[in-house]
Amino acid sequence: MKLLLSFTASAAFHVATGSASSIHRRDPYEIFRFPGRILPQFGGNDANQQIGSTGVNIPLEVWRIGATDLQWAGEITVGTPPQKFKVIFDTGSPYLLLPRNNCTTCGSQHNLFNPSASTTFSPSPGLPLQLEFGSAGGGTVPTNSSQRVNCIAATDTVSISSPPLEAFNQQFLVCDYYSSGLATQPADGIFGLGSLPTGLWPDKSRKTTVEFETAYWNWINSSASGDLSPEFGMFLGSPNPQLTLGGSDTNLYRTSTLRSRTIFLDVQLSTMRSSWVSGLRSVKVNNQLLLSSNESSPVFDDVALLDTGSAIILTPDFTTAANIYNILSPQIGPLDDLGSWGGPCSVLDNIAETAIISFTVGTKEKAVEVDLVKGAFNLGVFDEVARPGICQAVFVNPTEPAREPVRGRLAWVLGTPVLKGYYTVWDGKQMEVGFGELKTQEGNGGYEKGKGWGKRHGKGKGWGKWRGRGVWGL
Ligand SMILES: *[C@@H]1O[C@H](CO)[C@@H](O)[C@H](O)[C@H]1NC(C)=O
Ligand SMILES: *[C@@H]1O[C@H](CO)[C@@H](O)[C@H](O)[C@H]1NC(C)=O
Ligand SMILES: *[C@@H]1O[C@H](CO)[C@@H](O)[C@H](O)[C@H]1NC(C)=O
Ligand SMILES: *[C@@H]1O[C@H](CO)[C@@H](O)[C@H](O)[C@H]1NC(C)=O
């Protein structure tokens, strides 16, 4: 889920965020990557590592409405004795957040964390944090209000899998307010898999920020065996989606394809907000080149946030969405003034089956082409009551152009309609992401030919209006 800039802390916090972090601060235009670098652990294809046995596999559950996959969640435990929670593994945000047992707005179907039932709980550091998410991660239809949580940073043991990886003294957020989009989704909380080993809490009273180690890195660094790689692998296809912590599951992808399909992140943008951001050179729609970067510029003209918490593709602006849909069909148009597009379901089904839409992502040093998963173009019926037979298409635009904060380049969000077609490997140490070819094509799932499309969402299920505010939520 894309975290919006607007923490309720003052704007000064964001400046502090940028400067307080000591990690990977580099000159924005420095060419810091060089091809041919030896990456010993990446992708589990090092000669010293046993194929298929690296990392800890975590089964994921998919939340699907109709034929559209919205979110992937897995189970963690927190506290002593352990309390169980389902959390969305989200590369678009850096925090672990859970609902607290005194929350009345967090959704009655959810497990709520009870601090007083845990002997290892500590209320420190006790910093209050209000977050705003600008994502359609819990849905696909943008709404005119964003999703919010009110939380306090506290400490406890956070564990996953059996035998467990344990993160002792882990700081995370316990929340006593969820807005409706978070309250109604099946998962209890969000597990941010942002790109950095550390996160920052704002300490408003002292006008500073407090650094903490993220739960993922705490697991990796303190794993008893000590042999976990600083990376995780994700398979979001069917039938058994899976997250692998500290390695990748080489049973699921062709290892030989990973290294040649690995891109470097834009280090400055990725570290600024602990996201996975790379350049975007071009988008091809049925072999028509829609946009392509100026080859004499040192970086690609656009950037893309790679977000496992978004079930859509967010274009940087209205015009870009319009240009894409113009190539595809005159019968597709805006469905609202909040960024949704669509048209007759039969038209969208046909495009979903036949169109080839691809994105060239990466940096000048290395870029790869990734395709929109077959079938993912059609998100399903938009509003059964008011507009029967009208389906929503996968590209959504923000209400104001989204730009990254360093050079003002237009910013996209590439969500799971692209990511689930690959075995993705995310390495926050080398700052790179690989797109391995799946061994089966089942990753191109979600779309069952001949079965048509069910109703994907009711009105109001969307997750927050895409408010560009002229600045991307980095
Ligand atoms: C925002 O949502 C409310 C409640 O659904 C609605 O009354 C209002 O017209 C909406 N505003 C816009 C700009 O869409
Ligand atoms: C929940 O409990 C915490 C800790 O006692 C408190 O700070 C917070 O205000 C409570 N929230 C609600 C909604 O009662
Ligand atoms: C955990 O490992 C990462 C990557 O090697 C490193 O950057 C970080 O400093 C480590 N954290 C701690 C607390 O050792
Ligand atoms: C391409 O980039 C170069 C170098 O940044 C710049 O001088 C030139 O004006 C750009 N050309 C276009 C068409 O934007």
UniProtKB/TrEMBL annotation:
Residue ranges constituting the Peptidase A1 domain according to the UniProt record: 72-436
Residues in the signal sequence: 1-18
Pfam families registered for this protein in UniProt: Asp
GO biological process, one term: proteolysis
Listed GO MF terms: aspartic-type endopeptidase activity
CDD domains referenced in this protein's UniProt entry, alphabetically: pepsin_like
Entry keyword set: Aspartyl protease, Hydrolase, Protease, Signal
InterPro entries, alphabetized: Aspartic_peptidase_A1, Aspartic_peptidase_AS, Pepsin-like_dom, PEPTIDASE_A1, Peptidase_aspartic_dom_sf
GO cellular component, one term: fungal-type vacuole
SUPFAM superfamilies per UniProt: Acid proteases
Family according to the record: Belongs to the peptidase A1 family.
PANTHER family: BETA-SITE APP-CLEAVING ENZYME, ISOFORM A-RELATED
Protein's UniProt name: Aspartic peptidase domain-containing protein
Native organism: Apiosordaria backusii
